[in-house]
Amino acid sequence: MADGSLDTDSEDEIPAGWEERMTLDGDNYHMAGKGSLKMMELSSMWSFETARSLAFHGAHVVMACRNTMSAQTCRDLILAERPGVKVTVMKIDLASLNSVKEFADQYKQQEWPLHYLICNAAVFGLPYTQTEDGLEATFQVNHLAHFYLTKLLWTQLMTSAPARVIVVSSESHRSADLNILNLSEEKLSPLESGYWDLRAYNLSKLCNLLFSLHLNTLLCRYRVSSVALHPGNMMYTNLQRHWWLYRTIFYFVRPWTKSMQQGAATTVYCAIAPEMQAVGGMYFNNCCRCPPSSAGADDELAKALWDIIMDCLYL
Ligand SMILES: NC(=O)c1ccc[n+]([C@@H]2O[C@H](COP(=O)([O-])OP(=O)(O)OC[C@H]3O[C@@H](n4cnc5c(N)ncnc54)[C@H](OP(=O)(O)O)[C@@H]3O)[C@@H](O)[C@H]2O)c1
């Protein structure tokens, strides 16, 4: 657990940028106020709902996106609905570590605080692709780039404490076959001969969970917590765009899957629910704490993965 709980006795003790609010039951709670930021990588549909919801809660939302045109459209839609809210679009391409660094530098130049970093972007079902950094793309986009971004914004998180990193993982982490014995850079970022898109995705989603777990261990003493979550099963977004078969399967299960608002609910819950303020190192599904796979709760594996990624990034 992060030791970031807030004493709600006095208005004077509310951290800068936070405000005191009251629930329908009359209980006080604090949330990030107008001066605070939430940043996320998105422009997909349920992620749009997440941004919309957080902006409506009074946050300045910075949408870090590869496709800034579509992000701009999302921003315009949010502003058309509620003109006073603050939404900023910035460019990031997680398949390029240079782009991640450029984004982080630009963010720091703004001297904005960072109360919530939502690591949301991912790819699924990609044919084998190498990034400009020479790594397998699913691994880099879904895991390594989030790690790098978080490391680059480490100081911003700590100086904005209480702050939280929210990592969007998936229930499919349960199918990953990673353990302390087979963990290696080659396993995480395989060559074409050892690549299978589904395996790469599942592995990256387990890495998301382990990243969140170890990050929380390292930062909770600075009142920066981290949680991971599953947004919903097989929601029809752009995730399955890379292969007609996945598109077809996701299309046919649509009547039984979550709406985009429901998909956003667990992320929004993890960000702003009053009872989440001192919570870290856990995994959530359907707005409830949920036990991850045994690998997903393995502290030793999380630390070993962390060390390998630090080596990959020459950090
Ligand atoms: N859909 C589901 O059923 C489901 C289930 C479990 C977990 N999830 C997780 O939910 C999260 C969001 O997925 P989604 O379903 O909303 O899929 P999505 O519609 O494809 O959204 C993924 C987002 O990631 C962005 N992205 C991809 N590559 C990028 C890159 N190189 N640089 C920057 N951004 C990049 C995409 O941007 P572009 O628009 O530019 O491509 C898109 O905005 C993912 O972490 C996914 O693993 C989804």
Could you characterize the architecture of this molecule?
There is one protein chain. The protein is globular, with a radius of gyration of 19 Å. Helix 1 links the parallel strand 3 and strand 4. The strands form two sheets. It has an eight-stranded mixed sheet, sandwiched between helices. With 315 residues, it is of the alpha/beta class. 40% of the residues lie in helices and 16% in strands. It has one domain: 3-Layer(aba) Sandwich (Rossmann fold). It has ten helices and ten strands. NADP nicotinamide-adenine-dinucleotide phosphate (NAP) binds next to helix 1. The site of NADP nicotinamide-adenine-dinucleotide phosphate has 28 residues, from helix 1. This is WWOX-like protein. Pfam families: adh_short. Belongs to the short-chain dehydrogenases/reductases (SDR) family. It comes from Mya arenaria. Keywords: NADP, Oxidoreductase.
Summarize, please.
Helix content is 40%, strand content 16%. It is an alpha/beta fold. It has a single domain, classed as 3-Layer(aba) Sandwich (Rossmann fold), CATH 3.40.50.
Write the layout of secondary structure elements.
Layout (H helix, E strand, L loop, with lengths): L17 E5 L5 E5 L4 E5 L3 H12 L3 E6 L2 H14 L4 E6 L5 H14 L5 E4 L17 H16 L1 H6 L3 E6 L16 H4 L8 H23 L4 E7 L13 H9 L7 H13 L9 E4 L2 E2 L9 H14 L3
Parallel strand pairs: 3-4, 3-6, 4-5, 6-7, 7-8, 8-9
Antiparallel strand pairs: 1-2, 9-10
Helix pairs in contact: 1-9, 3-4, 4-7, 7-10
Bound molecules: NADP nicotinamide-adenine-dinucleotide phosphate.
The site of NADP nicotinamide-adenine-dinucleotide phosphate has 28 residues, from helix 1.
